[in-house]
Design brief:
2 domains, globular, single chain, TIM Barrel, 381 residues
Length: 381
């Protein structure tokens, strides 16, 4: 059956109010074309001479699907598209695209500092949806260092301070994949190791070194404090910007640590996972506390999103998959995260129904689970 006919089979997916369980704020300030294009890639380098970031799956998706929301014809060229969003203004662009996404709740990672993006309350106001916070462990620790905490106090008081700061948070997040990689010692560090590592980090910081927390002992300490806090714990895995080394971000490297923390009954959500989403699916099948999404990847894959979404449905139990956009910056990314997920779900699940492998009722039930219900079960305990 043709893909367009398959997609018609599950039109109810378009009406789902999604829970975007991992997302960042939409832009709070205008962006010119160059600035806008910088958000269409995970690269932090300039595009090759004579090329455009619009010539990508994500760039084509913006021109096809976002243009009509801004009052333009589908496939409008990059120049007219950027001119139109500038004429509308950032506030109106955000309102149109966030509202059109059909996302009913945003769980916002507030850990990217210094970027002009909306916080949770501003995201709620712009979209008419609910919004909550995901607290990033490394950013919180770096904030304590900036406030002048000492090494012994950091090691002793971090769990208490984390509990205070995260009292209203929906969950926690770690970017140890970026700072070290996922092949870390799975056991918690001893107290004296934490004090020594914190002292070295804080002294280097005070002497003009980087404020970035990258010591593997401290990163493990933060992770274990997060586990003991008891909130759902998100971990970046797989695809991201060049600050990481992809080979070190395979979630399968977490296996020993996942077994160590199983007794704490803390839900661990593996974010993005691509191109290791099949490995993540295995972990989600084997361990009751492991969940995953393919968030960031689907947006960047554009017309190929259905392929990866279908692969994520191979091993992972359907109650262990979540929706996220991981959108950061232009509201186009929030809108596309939802739209491409819906299109991919309709194509993949519609195909299962058409070939007689699934019932229509089961397909819609799974779409509701992944789109919202699994996140509600995890984050609303």
């Amino acid at each position: 059956m043709e893909a367009g006919v398959e997609a018609l089979a599950l039109a109810e997916i378009e009406e789902l109010r999604l829970v975007d369980h991992h997302v960042h704020g939409a832009l709070a300030e205008p962006a010119d074309r160059s600035g806008f294009e910088s958000f269409l890639t995970e690269s932090d380098r300039p595009a090759a001479v004579g090329t455009s970031r619009f010539d990508s799956q994500l760039g084509f998706a913006v021109r096809r699907w976002c243009a009509p929301v801004l009052g333009l014809e589908p496939h409008t060229g990059p120049g007219p598209y950027c001119a139109r969003r500038a004429a509308l203004g950032t506030e109106e662009v955000n309102r149109r695209l966030l509202t059109a996404s059909g996302i009913g709740r945003f769980l916002v990672d507030t850990g990217i500092l210094g970027a002009p993006v909306l916080g949770p309350s501003a995201m709620a106001a712009a979209s008419g949806a609910r919004a909550g916070e995901i607290l990033r462990l490394e950013s919180f620790a770096e904030g304590l260092a900036a406030d002048g905490i000492g090494a012994a106090a950091f090691a002793r008081r971090f769990p208490e301070l984390l509990a205070e700061r995260s009292a209203a948070a929906a969950g926690l997040k770690s970017i140890i994949a970026y700072r070290h990689g996922l092949a870390f010692d799975p056991d918690p560090p001893a107290g004296h190791e934490v004090v020594r590592a914190a002292g070295n980090w804080l002294r280097a910081r005070d002497n003009g070194g980087t404020a970035r927390l990258a010591d593997p002992v401290l990163l493990r300490f933060l992770l274990w404090c997060g586990v003991e806090r008891g909130l759902p714990l998100q971990l970046h895995t797989g695809f991201g910007d060049p600050d990481l080394r992809l080979r070190r971000c395979d979630p399968a490297l977490l296996t020993d640590w996942l077994e160590r923390i199983e007794r704490y009954r803390v839900d661990v959500v593996l974010l993005h996972c691509y191109p290791f989403h099949r490995n993540a699916g295995f972990l989600a099948q084997v361990y009751p506390h492991v969940y995953l999404d393919t968030g960031l990847a689907l947006t960047h894959l554009g017309a190929r999103a259905a392929t990866v979404l279908a692969e994520s449905l191979e091993l992972a139990p359907f109650g262990k998959l979540l929706f996220s956009s991981d959108a950061f910056g232009p509201a186009e990314l929030h809108y596309l995260g939802a739209l491409l997920w819906r299109r991919a779900m309709r194509r993949v699940l519609g195909g299962f129904v058409t070939e007689g492998s699934w019932s229509r009722a089961d397909a819609l039930r799974v779409a509701r689970m992944i789109g919202a219900e699994n996140a509600q079960r995890i984050y609303d305990r």
